[in-house]
User: Fold this.
Amino acid sequence: MPRPRGPDHVTLRRKSPLPIWAQIGWRVALVLGLLGVAIGVHWLERDGLKDGLDGHVSFTDVIYFTMISITTTGYGDIVPISDRARMFDAFVVTPIRIFFVLIFIGTAYTFVFRRTWEKWRMERIQRNLCSHVVVAGFGTSGAETVDELLARGTPAQEIVVIDPDDAALERAESLGCAVLNADATRDRTLQAVRIDQAHALIVSAGRDDTSILITLTARHLAPRLAISVAVRNEDNELLARQAGATTVINPVSFAGLLLAGSTHGAHIADYIADLASSHGRVRLAERTVREDECGMALAEIAGGLGLRIYRDEVPHGFWEPEAKSLRPGDIIVEILPTLPREADLS
Assistant:
């Protein structure tokens, strides 16, 4: 059963072109403008106001009354007595007062509370990051990768997605992943997601040059990290490996293999797709040889169908002499049946 894709709606957003001082400046100007309008109307309608102290309403009294009315509910020393003054205070000054409060709260949240809150949340998430999977790029391939990781049982809280697109990050966040809107080619970005403590990095930036640069950056920060990279140009596969990628995937070449295989049998491509997906009846698995399996042939292992071993990073097929006797440290690649419980979760 396919995984849900999350919310169907997206929000179109763009970063404000105004610097912070300009954003604060226009809010201050708006507040002063509304305040000026209220003072002006109160001055014109000063005959509708009564000063309980001396009975005379001066311009200073108007400024005082307007400021007190807008920021508080007033002290009662100056009060509106005419219907027009009372209606103006009820239908204009009161909404202005509410608008002032919203502006002040919004400004404080935008420039103080939100940044403090986001910094605290980021530090809290960082403290719990260990043996996690970092996905750099949440386009079509990156999204499918995260869906597959979740289907294979990787907890969402152990996945961190880096992408410069807010709309993409919204979907990743809706899946429960930690997200970061940043440039993954920067040391600072990868350090923020604790790349040195990650279990693996998956790079699918959409451009080969960007993916290779991300790989270079990650490799010098985490020399032993497992890095899987998707590249589109066959010429860049060697460059990706030289940059430090442990696995290089070319989706174009893989699609070509499936198409070519389909010409030799209608079910070959289906079986390959079955192996690659968590939704199929079988799955590929990789593990280290167990102590009780040492000395056995690859074909004799229980539980799965052994295909290949890696000994000192050299691959050996099940038909080769090296696979006739397993040794400690060998890596086994085998086909296992998908358990019914796993299929239900998918």
